[in-house]
Design a protein that fits this description.
The protein has 400 residues and is mostly beta strands. Helix content is 2%, strand content 57%. The strands form two sheets. It has a 16-stranded antiparallel β-barrel with strand order 4-7-8-9-10-11-12-13-14-15-16-17-18-19-20-21.
Amino acid sequence: EADTANGGYRDWDIGYDRGFYLRGLQNNESFELRTNMRLQFRFVTFSSNTESWTNNAGVTVPVRDRQYFDIERARLVFAGHAFSRTITYSSQFDFDTDSRHVASLLDGWVAWEYQDKRFVHFGKRKVPGTRNWILGAFDSRMVDRPIANEFFRPSRTTGIWFIGDPAPSLRYELMIGQGYNTEGLTPQEIGNNFAPAGSVYCDIIGNYGPLRPTEFEYHEDLAVRLGASAVASIEGTPGRQLEEADFLRLTDGTRITEPNALAPGATVEGFQVYLMAVDAAYKYRGWSANSEFFVRSIQNLVSNNPVPSVGLQWGFYSEAGFFVIPKRYELNSHYSFIDGDQGATNSYATGFSIYPRGMSFLKLSMDGTYIDGSPTNSTATNILVGDKGFLFRCQWQAMF
């Protein structure tokens, strides 16, 4: 359409293509806005095998049965590019019933493609500390992520990311950000130290394809992918009890910053945390498996009284599945393990997924998980600290 007033031209298009979009050209500049909706609706029931849990600080809390409906992730995404296809943006708003029904900005960034398939991002994103954390929650093999990943993984932060695909079989993601886990925190609640993090993977056999671990694409030839991730962060400030340091737990589930957690009369105010993870996965003719191993070291503890070493924390998860009917019906199983000086825990899960339209964006999943004592408090997975018993989840997932 001619635009004689501006001496240029306009060409705009509105439609739907896996999301509603508005695209246009104006005065030789290109624009796009794409809107997507994502939803995970669950039925959850947990049957406890114990009446209470006592943490390392000597505090006893009840462990109760639970049964409820849950909107775990209702996401509204706005993404596209502005002025040029090399300048992209994304913002993701999230609504959960387990976050007191409050909608909030989950991710938000602007990126510049400074070289072919190499980007620099500015804003708020995930800290690239584990492969399963980088994986989108809507692509999890089971209803949600493994408990070992939830215990070790970082969260989100603000900062700068360098992301690239220098070769079809190679991808990297590097970050310098505010911290290990600064989701929802203000600048007054975090320290002055930045955190570096990075993740890389490489296809050593075949073409693995999308990051999701399930064999939805159906590979005629074997595909194997290997990867590694790491993050380091200085948490807290001596003399100040900052919210930034409250995320980390001992392997029995006690917050490291809880009074008496490591010694009577002692409260940890700061520490240094280092996380290393290595992962491997394969896909072949409907079969698939993936695993990730974690090692976390907590050092240089700052406390009002002397405290002993936390010790090395380590763990892993292994998952496997098979499409009984390609792109329609899949069986999956999972094992997760966490260990450290304060205790060890196991979890076992099995379940299935149905894709009623033969497409990945509509899925019905059910799984059952036995937990012998959870050291993490993860409302996203419906697993709370101290849980010991059986968890059943049924989820309807849609993306459009």
